[in-house]
Amino acid sequence: MTDDAVIAQLRQRAASGSPQALYQLASALVLRQEIDEALPLHRRAAEQGLVSSQIEYARMLMFGIAAEPDPAQAAQWFLRAEAAGSAVAGYFLVLLSFGDGMVPADGRFNERLLNAVRADHAPALRAAAIHFGRKQNEADQARCLQLLERAAARGDAIAARLLAERLARGEGCPPQPDAAREITLQLARHGIGAMPAIEVAPAGREAMPAAGVLALEEVLRPTERTEQAEHPRVWLADGLLSADECRLLVACAEPRLQRSRTVDPETGLPVPMELRTSEDASFDPILEDLALRLVQLRMATAAGMPLSHAEHLIVLRYRPGEEYRPHRDYRPPASIEHDRPDAGNRQRTICVYLNEPEAGGETEFPVAGLKIAPRAGRAVIFDNLHADGRPDTDSLHAGLPVQQGEKWLATLWIRQGRYRAY
Fold first, then answer.
1. What's phi and psi for 404, nearest 5 deg?
2. Euclidean distance between the first and final Cα of the chain, in Å?
3. Are 24 and 10 in contact (CB under 8 A)?
4. What count of Cα atoms within 13 Å lies in the side-chain half-sphere of residue 356?
5. What is the helix, strand, coil percentage profile of the chain, to 5?
6. Where are the beta strands (DSSP E) in 62-160?
7. Which helix (H) or strand (E) holds 8?
């Protein structure tokens, strides 16, 4: 039967108004990218109480698929689905909980994530694993491994990559090279390669929640950072991200890498330039899961800015000889006009090194006479604007050429005002 014939058959069934038939037709239309027709079908099924359509309709509202983003309305539909017993709806409520108060501040985000973990929802398992992996006691390290194993068993390739790295390096367990090799071979059959070497010194015990406690609120705790320069203002925060978090960003970005672009000051549009020779991947919110969102929230908190003001997360890879020549991050007026002008300009930048290249790849601030060496988990934070909003020309900086190995870097450019829907 052809695809068109299948859709025609589904339309006949949906004519009855059955919520399950409406859901099946809407899901098939989504696969065909016919989103505008799918949205009202999911709504009709959701209004009749079908939980799966309540979740899908809420997701479409949350991400602005075939409609303007409406996180507040999405939260109401997730709450209805959760009340009907859906742990997956609760997982999405956790995502919204870390988005400017779209969900009532009832403190239930840890309980909701735990319910999604108990339901074996793979993204929840991965997020919880990474959370426990930041804590250094043996029991929580073992929990991290167990949760990654469960997520990998559910088909989560990213969890499998994180698990293989831990087994190979003996993180949270004695080294298990044979088990790591078997996972790596299985991933290779699906075209997924090896990870770069990533090691991060453990965070201080005093900054961690109690052993065995799921406490996502720790991501909002202030980060210790040291000032490196006054003109421009530059700060450093070592060990901001854990090895698991760095590996997560690399694993999520790798399949989406494209040649990096730079904003043309005359047209305001992104174009390839020799100024910037790296590859990068941009993460639209629809690509975010909870683990990715928590990493970004940790970065924004370290930068002292709301995550809602941040542009999309960018992860970059620099190979030998690749660089980002001296430039400034604030955007020319023409560029701002093309991209959320109400959000203003880029006030602050935070970059986190995800690995350590064998040689080269420093970040240089020529005006300050400052060079910062890449170390996995290390964050560099700097202002692009003066306090009165004027562009700070002293913020000139460069990513120096990588001499040996690769350099992976995650960047958030944070605007003066709200950029994201939540």
1. -145, 145
2. 42
3. yes
4. 15
5. 45, 15, 40
6. none
7. helix 3-14
Q: Which pair of structure tokens corresponds to residue 239?
A: 């060990």
Find out whether 321 and 401 touch, Cβ atoms under 8 Å: yes
- What string of DSSP letters covers 177-238? HHHHHHHHHHHHTTT--PPPP---PPPPGGGSPPTT---GGGGGSPPP-EEEETTTTEEEET
Q: Would you say the pTM of this structure is higher than 0.90?
A: yes
Provide the residue type at 179 as one letter.
Answer: A
Omega of the bond prior to 341 within 30 degrees of 0, cis? no
DSSP H or E segment with residue 370: strand 370-372
CA 240, 244, 248, 249: dihedral to nearest 10 degrees? 30
* Pair of tokens at residue 194: 């090896």
Stated as kind and residue range, the H or E segment containing 263 is strand 262-263
How many C-beta atoms surround the C-beta of residue 277 within 10 A?
A: 18
Separation CA 242–CA 203 (nearest Å): 8
pLDDT tens string, the chain, 422 residues long: the values are 678 888 999 999 999 999 999 999 999 999 999 999 999 999 999 999 999 999 999 999 999 998 889 999 999 999 999 999 999 999 999 999 887 656 665 679 999 999 999 999 999 999 999 999 999 899 999 999 999 999 999 999 999 999 999 999 999 999 999 999 999 999 999 999 989 999 998 754 445 667 888 999 999 888 899 999 999 999 999 999 999 999 999 999 999 999 876 666 655 556 555 567 789 999 988 888 999 999 999 999 999 999 999 999 999 999 999 999 999 999 988 888 888 999 999 999 999 999 999 999 999 999 999 999 999 999 999 999 999 999 999 999 999 999 999 999 999 999 999 999 88
CA 202 to centroid of chain Cα atoms:
21
- Local structure of residue 3 (DSSP, 8 states): H
At 97, the amino acid letter reads: S
Amino acid residing at 222:
P
Tokens of 353: 């090194």
Q: Which tokens hold the place of 253?
A: 């970005």
**Measured between alpha carbons, how far is 185 from 166 in angstroms, rounded to an integer?**
16
Question: CA angle, corner 196, sides to 179 and 146, nearest 5?
Answer: 40
Question: Residue 153: what residue type?
Answer: A
Q: Which residues pair with 318 in a beta bridge?
A: 407
Distance CA 274, CA 192 (A): 29
Q: Name which of 130, 136, 145 is nearest 179 in CA terms.
A: 145
CA distance 194 to 355: 14
Give residue for tokens 């859901």.
23
